[in-house]
Specification:
The chain has 249 residues and is α+β, with helices and mostly antiparallel strands. It contains nine helices and ten strands. A four-stranded antiparallel β-sheet has the order 3-1-2-9. A four-stranded antiparallel β-sheet has the order 5-6-4-7, with helices on one face.
């Protein structure tokens, strides 16, 4: 099992419980707003908005709050205009990172992200230097209590590309455009979905075998994620489970 996947799953679950609700809501609302601006306010016609809508509802963002964000995105209500910008770089140990942001001030955000990298043993990279090591995929996490045959009987016809074991969960991957179709098919078959998101999945991983480097890698990622403009941080590390358990806080 990949230590990275275990860490990501644990982080996702802790996030829903431990993060300041207002901060989490703000990030999700920003994602909804940008999706509506770029593809229109109809969730049936805008697949990205549909994904962001579902993600926000999964996190218990109130429906009226989501609807106002959609209206700001389409221009029906006034609001700050956010733009998407990605940064690429390396954490200690040569771990590749992609930092996805939504910002109303590109210069400010860029300076902040660069400072976080440089102060924590990392380095920024030119656009494209890191992203080729990742592929954008729809990712669905399911409990291992569901049988493999039961999952595949539904998933194959709904766009699933691969099924793998990730500790106490199954991980299904698909193309981003098939994610909602896949989730709907699974839920329609009464299969519990723990998580369904579009992610940047590494095509290869960098092993981090020593504890001090693992701590530095996770610390940098945590600091990046705490920034208000950062929506996601994708990494290609693989930390052994025993080290991961010791360094997690």
């Amino acid at each position: 099992m990949s230590g990275h996947s275990k860490w990501a799953t644990t982080k996702h679950r802790k996030g829903a419980q431990d993060k300041a609700r207002a901060k989490l809501f703000a990030k999700l609302i920003r994602q909804v707003e940008v999706a509506a601006r770029e593809g229109g306010g109809d969730i049936n016609a805008n697949a990205t908005l549909r994904t962001m809508f579902t993600k926000a509802r999964d996190a218990s963002v109130p429906l009226d709050t989501i609807e106002r964000a959609i209206k700001r995105g389409t221009g029906e209500l006034e609001g700050v205009r956010y733009e998407a910008v990605n940064y690429e770089g390396y954490a200690p140990g040569g771990v590749a990172l992609i930092v996805e942001c939504l910002t109303d001030n590109r210069n400010r955000t860029g300076a902040d992200i660069r400072a976080l990298f440089s102060r924590n043993g990392g380095s920024m990279a030119e656009p494209g230097a890191v992203s080729w090591q990742f592929g954008r995929k729809g990712v669905v996490m399911l409990p291992r209590s569901v049988g493999e045959e039961e999952i595949m009987a539904v998933a194959l016809d709904a766009g699933a590309e691969d099924l793998s074991e990730e500790g106490d969960e199954w991980m299904l991957t698909s193309s981003p455009s098939d994610l909602q179709q896949l989730r709907s098919a699974l839920e329609g078959a009464a299969i519990v979905v723990d998580q369904a998101e579009v992610e940047m999945v590494p095509t290869s991983r960098v092993g981090v075998e020593d504890e001090p480097t693992a701590k530095k890698v996770l610390r940098l990622i945590e600091l990046l994620e705490e920034h208000d403009d950062v929506q996601n941080v994708w990494a290609n590390f693989d930390i052994p489970d025993d080290i991961l358990e010791r360094v997690e806080v």
